[in-house]
Amino acid sequence: MDDKPMDKQDILDELEEIHKLDSDYAEGRILGSMCTEAHPFAKEVYCKFLDTNLGDPGLFKGTKSIENKVVKSIGEMLSLDNAYGNIVTGGTEANIMAIRAARNHARKYKGITDGEIIIPDSAHFSFKKAADMLNLKIVEAKLDENYKIDVESLKDVISDKTVAIVAIAGTTELGLIDPIEEISEIAFENNIYFHVDAAFGGFSIPFLRQAGYDLPVFDFSLDGVCSITVDPHKMGLAPIPAGGIIFRKEEYLDVMAVDSPYLTVKTQSTIVGTRLGASSAATYAIMKYFGKEGYLKLAQGMMNNTHFLAENLKKIGYEIICEPELNIVAFNHPNMETNELALKLEELGWKVSVSKCPIAIRIVLMNHIKKSHLEELLEDLKEIF
Fold first, then answer.
1. CA distances from 121 to 4, 138, 139 (A)
2. Would you state the pLDDT for residue 268?
3. pLDDT of residue 133
4. What is the mean pLDDT of residues 89-108?
5. Which of 93, 101, 132, 319 could hold 252 in an S-S bridge, CB 3.0 to 4.6 Å?
6. Strand pairing partners for 138?
7. Among candidates 208, 170, 230, 176, which has minimal Cα distance to 304?
8. 299 near 366, Cβ under 8 Å?
9. Residues 331-369 pLDDT 10s
């Protein structure tokens, strides 16, 4: 910190120069991110609510009512009339909350003190954080030949220490949907908490199904599903940070509650104390702004680009790892190592990522990527080939 105040314009000029080092979604060259540029209207609303704190909701009753409405609206989108939960910082916090709820519920009602969680190899790394923080053992279910949870493998690893089963609706690496309906039945029959991580797919699968896409059921219409993570700051176009955790029952929040005697409410279930209300307000606004019709159009547009990219990659001669279910395309060069191909694309200004299971170039077709950007990419890939 300087001894004397600095001129406002000088500060802004300095920040502008620093900001130039950041990648810009609008350039269409960020190809590996599950986030995108927030909608301008959502940003506008976000700024209006910057001073609100949902960690002390009695002081911000209006903003808390907005969060309640958002949770209800997302719950209804996921086939749940009476939803409970919160708008949090993102999928990681939401997943940690779900696993904490599962652990505490199993500890209270089953007496399990040394619990295990079953996750697939395709699970997001946030579950490793959750297991570490909550002193739980991770047990991995195998993947089948289609890179989805092998149901028989899952059955084999269930034990009397299992406090939760996790499945994915839109895997981070390939955008695939696990056999959630089958897993829900297994969890329900065994009285095991079942969490669905739909951080990526939650804001697209319901609308794509509405549009006629043959995608599996993943939501609360399945009796075994206890909680779902869904991120408005991904395909919901809300500003970062805006994750969502939705619970079927209020008791899952109750088993996490701790006393907060000096606040306007006397218990708190979220991980963080101070919580920005702006995320809830912006999510509420953008969901109202788009409606089901708008999100359906957005989801279809991203899938059109996904199919365009996949089909043209095949024409050039690249190998597609799997037919896309959601807006992710993973591919490899038939005669070049994946990391070498990634390096060549980076040198041409493309920001790609490499998946680990399997190793492949991974492109996420988010809203900021237009068909014109894909045409440029395909031209570069032809040259490389």
1. 54, 11, 10
2. 85
3. 97
4. 98
5. 101
6. 117
7. 208
8. no
9. 999 999 999 999 999 999 999 999 998 999 999 999 999
Residue 2 has pLDDT above 90, yes or no: no
Radius of gyration for the chain, computed over Cα atoms and rounded to the nearest angstrom: 22
What token pair was written down for 371?
């068909």
Q: What is the pLDDT of residues 251-263, one digit of tens each?
A: 999 999 888 887 7
- Percent of the chain at pLDDT > 70 equals 100
Cis, peptide link before residue 241, omega less than 30° from 0: yes
HEC sequence for the chain: CCCCCCCHHHHHHHHHHHHCCCCCHHHCCECCCCCCCCCHHHHHHHHHCCCCECCCHHHCHHHHHHHHHHHHHHHHHCCCCCCEEEEECCHHHHHHHHHHHHHHHHHHHCCCCCCEEEEECCCCCHHHHHHHHHCCEEEEECECCCCCECHHHHHHHCCCCEEEEEEEECCCCCCCECCHHHHHHHHHHCCCEEEEECCCCCCCHHHHHHCCCCCCCCCCCCCCEEEEEECCCCCCCCCCCCEEEEECCCHHHHCCCEECCCCCCCEECCCCCCCECHHHHHHHHHHHHHHHHHHHHHHHHHHHHHHHHHHHHHHHCCEECCCCCCCEEEEECCCCCHHHHHHHHHHCCCECEEEECCEEEEEECCCCCCHHHHHHHHHHHHHHC
pLDDT at 195: 98
Does residue 302 carry a pLDDT above 90?
yes
pTM of the complete model beyond 0.85: yes
Distances (CA, A) of 291 to 55, 65, 108, 231, 238: 28, 19, 40, 16, 13
Taking 90 as the threshold, does the pLDDT of residue 264 lie above it? Answer: no
- Rounded to the nearest integer, the mean pLDDT of the chain is 96
